[in-house]
């Protein structure tokens, strides 16, 4: 039996053609139209719109909060994934189901719920504000909302990788005199690092595009807690389509560079890990 007859989807050319058409309709053509619309501006006009004080402040909030939320989940999401894989405990299946809740919950509902909890008179906010910690209607609230939304990306990416790590590896490291920290740093972390970078990238990308949950808890104060997607919506409501497109192109360009950098780092980490295990 030839290799071509064993293929589930025979015909490389036909399959590739369908894949490229589908990808073009969903991604390439819309992004190309976005860039084409922005090209109607001169460079001076584009630069003026993209570098206003309000726009720069919104970039800082959007990218800073997204990075912070992804970084927080990289730590605590790893702990959650490790506990769910390694330890049996009562209610484990329920906790595991709760991890997927942000996937199923409408983002607007999540935003309203978080804003209610962290407001000054909320269940959590009433205890934090006397300590001088204000979450709702500040950039900290944006980080909380994005952390809630992006947690499943880290946990679900890491779980299969942790499941593949045999507990005997930890026992072998301990028998050779390694401390718990040395076992984690030298044995476990290199094994999960590529997957962790993948989860971080997914979480960061998802956070950049989040809108519904953020607007309810951010306060949307210009120069303080206004995200770029909200600024784009504001320009569209003002019939400034070209201005909104210019901001969208800036977000697209910065996101592309950051994701390309993270993916390059992920490839390097995976290659290094394969070289160690070879």
Question: What global shape is seen?
Answer: globular
Main beta sheet: strand number and arrangement? Answer: none
* SS strand fraction: under 5%
- What are the segments in which pLDDT stays under 50 over at least 5 consecutive residues? none
Question: Using DSSP, what is the number of strands?
Answer: 0
Please name the CATH topology of the domain at 60-226: MetI-like fold
Helix run count: 13
Give me the secondary-structure category.
mainly alpha
By CATH's scheme, which homologous superfamily of the domain at 60-226 applies? MetI-like
Termini separation comes to 32 Å
Percent helix: over 70%
CATH architecture of the domain at 60-226: Orthogonal Bundle
Q: Measured on Cα atoms, how large is the radius of gyration?
A: 23 Å
Q: How would you describe this protein?
A:
- Helix content is 77%, strand content 0%.
- It contains 13 helices and no strands.
- The radius of gyration is 23 Å and the shape is globular.
- The chain has a domain of 167 residues: Orthogonal Bundle (MetI-like fold), CATH 1.10.3720.
- With 278 residues, the chain is mainly alpha-helical.
- The mean pLDDT is 87.
């Amino acid at each position: 039996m030839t290799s071509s007859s064993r293929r589930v989807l025979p015909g490389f050319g036909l399959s590739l053609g369908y894949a490229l058409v589908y990808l073009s309709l969903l991604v390439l053509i819309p992004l190309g139209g976005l860039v084409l619309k922005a090209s109607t501006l001169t460079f001076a006009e584009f630069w003026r719109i993209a570098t206003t004080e309000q726009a720069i402040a919104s970039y800082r909030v959007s990218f800073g909060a997204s990075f912070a939320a992804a970084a927080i989940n990289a730590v605590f999401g790893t702990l959650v994934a490790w506990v769910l894989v390694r330890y049996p405990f009562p209610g484990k299946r329920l906790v595991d189901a709760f991890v997927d809740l942000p996937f199923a919950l409408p983002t607007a509902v999540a935003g309203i719920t978080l804003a209610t909890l962290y407001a000054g008179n909320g269940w959590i906010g009433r205890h934090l504000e006397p300590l001088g910690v204000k979450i709702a209607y500040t950039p900290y609230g944006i980080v909380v909302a994005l952390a809630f939304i992006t947690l499943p990306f880290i946990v679900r990416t890491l779980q299969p990788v942790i499941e593949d790590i045999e507990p005997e590896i930890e026992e072998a490291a301990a028998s050779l005199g390694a401390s718990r920290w040395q076992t984690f740093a030298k044995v476990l972390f290199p094994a999960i690092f590529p997957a962790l970078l993948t989860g971080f990238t997914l979480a960061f990308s998802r956070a950049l595009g989040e809108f519904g949950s953020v607007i309810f808890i951010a306060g949307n104060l210009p120069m303080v807690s206004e995200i770029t997607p909200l600024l784009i919506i504001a320009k569209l409501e003002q019939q400034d389509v070209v201005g909104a497109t210019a901001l969208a192109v800036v977000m697209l360009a910065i996101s592309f560079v950051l994701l390309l950098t993270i993916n390059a780092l992920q490839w390097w980490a995976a290659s290094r890990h394969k070289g160690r295990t070879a």
